Every structure is written in structure tokens, then in C-alpha cells.
């Protein structure tokens, strides 16, 4: 393609250990291995534009939900040369607490999200505790404030953010979950976000148990394969194996940030 490729980064900001198999897979064998979860934000950058994907959870949410807070996800953007105060476009893949906190920390940003996600997070589904649990009310209220301040950009289904960067509604995990397809130096890479928390979710077609619609989640696995150049071009949203498979941008950022536009260093 003649389109300038994006640099693509992941920044790890949190961790959750001591998982049980049934927390990662529906109908899991209680004797099998249970992967920990890592928490990331992502950045696609090239000469004409920078896009941030998700804003992580706050330190207060980490303490309340007993997650390991490693670094501030928005402030961590500075580690790869991105000034949060100058970011103009942020994609919210969905409004769960670990993807939509800190919405007040990007003063110039416009927030891209799906119509169905906002309707889901503010509608009758939130009358049910099991569906409401992954959301934090303050995050949803902050997004409503951004709507009233004309800083929300709503989308219905698939759309192009820029040449070489498209968003695709997946659903499943949350009603308006969206994944990104990004043109990079190694081809089309898909940031699954929570369309697949772990490699095993999409590789073995084993749905994650925090789910709005199981059928949509399973169909979403197929979509990831269609969008990516190969299975090695799919990046799950929370798998610690991502930290082992991709190189750091520099020695100083080893164990902190990754270059997802580089080929994986191991299968």
C-alpha cells in the first residue's frame, strides 16, 4: 500500500493475578491453567496523526477492584513521546472501567465510541447487576459530560478514522465493543481489545465469561481472523504473553511498552 504505515504501541499499566480458570473461560475445567491478566492502552502514530485507544482505569478504581496499579495509563503516554495534553483523538473501545477511566485527563481529545455502547451503558441493561458490574458510574457520567460538551464522536458500526485505520463493531463482551484494524510496516494488525482477552479465547474459540452476547463474541473471533493479515497479527486485550512476544521500543522501556508494528519475537 502507498499509505504511510502507523507505528503501533502498547503500554502496560496494570496487572491482575491469582485467576481461576472459570474467570477466563466459560465452562472451564477447574484443574487447568488460569492466565493472569495484563492491562494496556494502545497508540497508533505516524507523521500526520496520533490516535490513542482507551484510557485505562484510575488509581482509585484499582484499589477498589483490587487490581495492581503499575503506572498511570494516560500519563504513561509520555514514555513514547505522546503528550496527553495535545492528543486530539481517543478511541474508547468500550466503556468498561478498565478502558474508560481518566476521561478528564485529555483536555483536547474527542472521544470515538459506538452508539450502541453509550445506549447500553445508560439504558435498561444497567438495571441488572451482572451487566452493570464492569462499568464504573463516574466514567459513564464523565462521558455524558463530554457528549454535552460536544467532545464525543458517535459511530454506528464500522468506520474509517484515517487511511490505514478502521474501527469495527464486534459486540459480544459489551454491546458496542469495537476493535481496530491498523496498517503497519508488517501489514494489517488488529487490536482486538476485549473481543479476545487472551490468545486462547480466539485461538481455541473459548468465550470469556464477562459477556453480553455469547453468539456475537464467537462471531467476533471469526471477524478478527478476517481483518488481520494472519493470526500473528491479532493482539488480544489482556494477555501477558503479549509482553513476551513483542519487543520494547527501547531498552529503557523493557517490560513497560511494546512495538506491535514489529514482528513477534516468538510464537
Overview of the molecule:
By secondary structure, the protein is an alpha/beta fold. It has one domain: Ribonuclease Z/Hydroxyacylglutathione hydrolase-like (Metallo-beta-lactamase, Chain A), CATH 3.60.15. It is 21% helix and 25% strand. It has seven helices and 13 strands. The strands form two sheets. Strands 1, 2, 3, 4, 5, 6, 7 and 13 form an eight-stranded mixed beta sheet that branches. A five-stranded mixed beta sheet has the order 8-9-10-11-12, with helices on one face. Strand 8 and strand 9 (165-169) form a beta hairpin. The two termini are 26 Å apart. The mean pLDDT is 97.
Count of distinct structural domains: 1
Oligomeric state of the chains? single chain
In this structure, how is the largest beta sheet organized? 8 strands, mixed
The CATH architecture: 4-Layer Sandwich
Query: Quick check: average pLDDT?
Result: 97
And the CATH topology? Metallo-beta-lactamase, Chain A
Instruction: Give the name of the CATH superfamily.
Output: Ribonuclease Z/Hydroxyacylglutathione hydrolase-like
Strand content: 25-35%
Q: What is the number of E strands?
A: 13
Give the CATH level 1 class: Alpha Beta
Q: What structural category do the secondary elements indicate?
A: alpha/beta
Order of helices and strands: EEEHEEEHHHEEEEEHHEHE
Distance between the termini: 26 Å
Amino acid at each position: 500500500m502507498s499509505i504511510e504505515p502507523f507505528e503501533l504501541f502498547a503500554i502496560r499499566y496494570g496487572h491482575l493475578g491469582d485467576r481461576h480458570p472459570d474467570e477466563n473461560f466459560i465452562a472451564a475445567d477447574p484443574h487447568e491453567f488460569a492466565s493472569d491478566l495484563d492491562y494496556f492502552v494502545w497508540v497508533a502514530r505516524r507523521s500526520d496523526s496520533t490516535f490513542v485507544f482507551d484510557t485505562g482505569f484510575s488509581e482509585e478504581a484499582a484499589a477498589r477492584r483490587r487490581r495492581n496499579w503499575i503506572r498511570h495509563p494516560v500519563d504513561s503516554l509520555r514514555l513514547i513521546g505522546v503528550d496527553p495534553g495535545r492528543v486530539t483523538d481517543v478511541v474508547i473501545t468500550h466503556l468498561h472501567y478498565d478502558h474508560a477511566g481518566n476521561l478528564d485527563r485529555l483536555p483536547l481529545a474527542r472521544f470515538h465510541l459506538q452508539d450502541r455502547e453509550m445506549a447500553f451503558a445508560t439504558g435498561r441493561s444497567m438495571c441488572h447487576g451482572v451487566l452493570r458490574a464492569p462499568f464504573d458510574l463516574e466514567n459513564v457520567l464523565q462521558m455524558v459530560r463530554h457528549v454535552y460538551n460536544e467532545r464525543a464522536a458517535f459511530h454506528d458500526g464500522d468506520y474509517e478514522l484515517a487511511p490505514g485505520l478502521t474501527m469495527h463493531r464486534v459486540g459480544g463482551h459489551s454491546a458496542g465493543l469495537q476493535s481496530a484494524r491498523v496498517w503497519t510496516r508488517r501489514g494489517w494488525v488488529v487490536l482486538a481489545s476485549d473481543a479476545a482477552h487472551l490468545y486462547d479465547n480466539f485461538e481455541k474459540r473459548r468465550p470469556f465469561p464477562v459477556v453480553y452476547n455469547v453468539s456475537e463474541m464467537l462471531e467476533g473471533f471469526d471477524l478478527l481472523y478476517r481483518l488481520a493479515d494472519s493470526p500473528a497479527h491479532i493482539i488480544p486485550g489482556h494477555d501477558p504473553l503479549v509482553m513476551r512476544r513483542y519487543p520494547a521500543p527501547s531498552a529503557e522501556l523493557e517490560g513497560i511498552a511494546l512495538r506491535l508494528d514489529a514482528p513477534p519475537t516468538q510464537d
